[in-house]
Amino acid sequence: MKYTIKSNRVGVIGTEFVPDEGTNIEALLANGFIESDEPSDSHASKSAKTKEPAKKD
Amino acid sequence: MASATYLSNPGVMINSINLTDMCTAATVTNMIESLEATAFGSTSRSFVGGLANQEITLDLYMSYAATETYATLAALVGTTTTVKVASTDAALTTATATTPRFELVGCYLESLPVINATMGELSTISITFTGGVLTTVVS
Predict the structure, then answer these.
(1) How many domains does one find in chain B?
(2) Which of A15, A24, A27, B100 could form a disulfide with B81, with the two C-beta atoms 3.0–4.6 Å apart?
């Protein structure tokens, strides 16, 4: 997995981020300091559409 | 002749995030816990070294802006990370024998003051990272 720097506090924006030993990657990703090249799997999957029963007058 | 070190611009990096411009004080303590080894027949106490128990304490200006103090630290509470403190900002990347860098790998942040405010003053916080393995980098 590759990471890209998104904040100049981490390094040059747009360059690859290579984590040091002990770096908490989740914290960096959570606050937008870096970005992963893999799509996040944290989004909840869409629920299946269900047909609502027809309303009766 | 006495020799002293005057630090005006140390470098501080928490979890790969450079917070030098938010930091006003840093203390890195290298400690080996003492275990008492005094026995019958001794006339004074004696100790042997136990576990290493390192600590880094930082004073920081608080900021809730994106990619600043709060954003850096909030997700680290209750987790481990790496903290680097160097005698100069440049030594965060290139340390030398006279400008060493101290790295605490796997240190734990137990608590974060989320508000520490006084009327008419900039908000500051003091945080302590404990545990981990301390390394001194000189090249």
Answers:
(1) 1
(2) A24
Segments forming the whole domain that contains residue B108: 16-33+52-137
Average pLDDT over residues B94-104: 94
Residue A40 has pLDDT above 80, yes or no: no
Residue A56 phi, psi (nearest 5): -105, 135
DSSP-assigned beta bridge partners for residue B84: B13, B103
Q: Hey, is the C-beta of B17 within 8 angstroms of any chain A C-beta? A: yes
Nearest chain A residue to B16 by CA: give it. Answer: A10
CB contact under 8 A, A33 and B67: yes
Model ipTM over 0.85: no
Over residues A2-12, the mean pLDDT reads 95
Helices and strands in chain B, H and E counts = 1, 10
B56, β-bridge pairs: B28, B129
Q: Where are the domains of chain A?
A: 3-36
B133 to chain A: closest CA residue: A22
Which of B19, B79, B107 lies closest to A27 in CB terms?
B79
Which pLDDT does position B70 carry in this prediction? 96
